[in-house]
């Protein structure tokens, strides 16, 4: 359990800016990406070989290997060492996380979530630089290796950045994401609490009718246009060994534009809603819902369009930014418990049953509204009428 940031406490945040990249700088960045991608693939190969031999392959061993690779390969030595070292850190972090999350005795290369090879043309270029690998001078970004980039300063950097991530999106636009120290910006106290339950029909159902987030359907609205460009791509798809035609590249770019627009619409909707919730409530009890399993169900497309994960992420970030207290509530049995008396039904409710009727106190309420009240009860923010809490339930934890 972590505690919320007090007013004025310093934390870390990201400030992202668009980059104006010349053809020379673009070639240099892609060259650096080819080198770091090669280092990543070498780490994957060495990790698999070490696992097969029953040996450890930690960051210290990979660092020594990097020194040897740079000594043997002049092409690798032409690039800066900072992004190559950082790609090893990223690999180690990804491998450690996968080993903690994955259970079973499947072979290493067959385990879902384990680091895999980055293929040219499929993996998006990403370069990480620590403070010794870049500098800001004359409003330009200078990277190790003599790469100079023009930054579109859309807002002021609050402090000197400690690191920067250079990446390219699906449209070919380059961005710089700086990590800086930021202070909490407290909002006026309201002495109010809200419970939030995630869903598909309504992205967020809350204990306040004025703060429910309806399913915006940005993806379904753009489906017709996206289908058109995907059909164009299918007709122009080159055969194996043939070069990509201009028509295929045009259709692929148009499809990428639609995807980018939908992603920005979802992010904008989530941020505006999160700011409104954080401004009106001091304490937030949020369902710690992991919608990944929905991708394998018949609701995969609609759940993806609801963007529950990104909305939850924006809400957590907004609460952290403004010093609000946010509790993540375990979702187990939240649809079976009564938000008024704490009683639990004898059986799990089917999805078709949208009204919750308590057999103990006789309370009748919409299913999602009842779950939102359960969030408040689990977090210890009992609403009016919640005089009992079912013992033995998973505890809520403070996320912010």
Q: What report would you give on this structure?
A:
- In the C-terminal section; belongs to the transposase 35 family.
- This is RNA-guided endonuclease InsQ/TnpB family protein.
- The chain is of the alpha+beta class and 400 residues long.
- It has 2 domains: 10-183, no CATH class; 193-214 and 264-398, Nucleotidyltransferase, domain 5 (2-Layer Sandwich), CATH 3.30.420.
- It has 10 helices and 15 strands.
- The strands form 3 sheets. It has a 7-stranded antiparallel beta sheet with strand order 2-6-7-1-5-4-3.
- The longest helix has 35 residues, at 246-280.
- The relative contact order is 0.12.
- The model is unreliable at 1-8, 102-110 and 384-392 (pLDDT under 50).
Topology (elements, then pairings):
Blueprint: E1 10-20, H1 23-52, H2 59-72, H3 74-77, H4 81-101, E2 126-130, E3 134-137, E4 140-143, E5 147-152, E6 163-168, E7 174-183, E8 193-198, E9 202-206, E10 213-214, H5 218-221, H6 223-236, H7 246-280, E11 283-287, H8 300-306, H9 308-321, E12 325-329, E13 355-357, E14 364-366, H10 367-378, E15 397-398
Parallel strand pairs: 8-11, 11-12
Antiparallel strand pairs: 1-5, 1-7, 2-6, 3-4, 4-5, 6-7, 8-9, 9-10, 12-15, 13-14
Protein name: RNA-guided endonuclease InsQ/TnpB family protein
Domain Probable transposase IS891/IS1136/IS1341: 178-289
GO molecular function: endonuclease activity
Radius of gyration from the alpha-carbon trace, in angstroms: 25 Å
Q: Helix segment count?
A: 10
Q: Characterize the main sheet.
A: 7 strands, antiparallel
- The residue ranges in which pLDDT falls below 50 over 5 or more consecutive positions are 1-8, 102-110, 384-392
Q: Please, how many domains?
A: 2
* Order of strands in the sheet with most strands: 2-6-7-1-5-4-3
Quaternary: single chain
Proportion of helical residues: 25-40%
Mean pLDDT: 85
User: What is the count of β-strands?
Assistant: 15
Strand proportion: 15-25%
Sum up the overall morphology in one term.
globular
- Structural class based on helices, strands and sheet pairing: alpha+beta
- N-to-C terminal Cα separation, in Å? 9 Å
The topology string of helices and strands comes to: EHHHHEEEEEEEEEHHHEHHEEEHE
Domain Cas12f1-like TNB: 315-373
Family: In the C-terminal section; belongs to the transposase 35 family.
Keywords: DNA recombination, DNA-binding, Endonuclease, Hydrolase, Nuclease, Transposition
Domain Probable transposase IS891/IS1136/IS1341: 178-289
């Amino acid at each position: 359990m972590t505690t919320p940031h007090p007013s004025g406490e310093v934390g870390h945040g990201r400030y992202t800016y668009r980059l104006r990249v010349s053809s020379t700088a673009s070639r240099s960045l892609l060259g650096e990406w080819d080198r770091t991608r090669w280092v990543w693939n070498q780490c994957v190969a060495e990790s698999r070989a070490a696992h097969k031999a029953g040996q450890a392959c930690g960051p210290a061993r990979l660092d020594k290997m990097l020194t040897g690779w740079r000594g043997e390969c002049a092409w690798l030595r032409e690039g800066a060492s900072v992004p190559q070292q950082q790609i090893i850190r990223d690999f180690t972090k990804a491998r450690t996380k996968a080993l903690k999350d994955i259970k079973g005795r499947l072979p290493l290369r067959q385990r879902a979530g384990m680091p895999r090879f980055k293929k040219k043309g499929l993996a998006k270029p990403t370069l990480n630089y620590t403070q010794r690998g870049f500098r800001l001078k004359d409003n330009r970004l200078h990277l190790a290796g003599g790469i100079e980039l023009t930054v579109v300063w859309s807002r002021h950097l609050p402090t000197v950045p400690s690191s920067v991530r250079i990446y390219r999106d699906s449209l070919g636009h380059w961005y710089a994401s700086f990590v800086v120290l930021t202070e909490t910006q407290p909002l006026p106290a309201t002495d109010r609490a809200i419970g939030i339950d995630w869903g598909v029909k309504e992205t967020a159902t809350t204990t306040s009718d004025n703060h429910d987030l309806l399913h915006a359907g940005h993806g379904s609205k753009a489906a017709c246009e996206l289908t058109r460009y995907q059909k164009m791509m299918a007709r122009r798809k080159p055969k194996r060994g043939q070069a990509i035609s201009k028509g295929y590249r045009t259709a692929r770019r148009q499809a990428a534009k639609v995807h980018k627009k939908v992603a920005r619409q979802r992010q904008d909707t989530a941020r505006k809603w999160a700011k409104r919730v954080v401004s009106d409530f001091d304490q937030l009890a949020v369902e710690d819902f992991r919608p990944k399993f929905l991708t394998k169900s018949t609701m995969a497309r609609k759940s993806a369009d609801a963007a529950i994960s990104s909305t939850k992420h924006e809400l957590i970030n907004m609460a952290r930014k403004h010093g609000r207290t946010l509790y993540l509530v375990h979702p187990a049995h939240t649809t079976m418990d009564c938000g008024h008396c704490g009683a639990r039904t004898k059986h799990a409710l089917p999805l078709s049953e949208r009204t919750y009727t308590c057999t103990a106190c006789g309370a009748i309420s919409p299913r999602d509204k009842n779950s939102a009240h359960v969030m408040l009860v689990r977090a210890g923010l009992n609403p009016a009428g919640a005089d009992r809490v079912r013992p033995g339930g998973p505890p809520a934890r403070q996320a912010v």
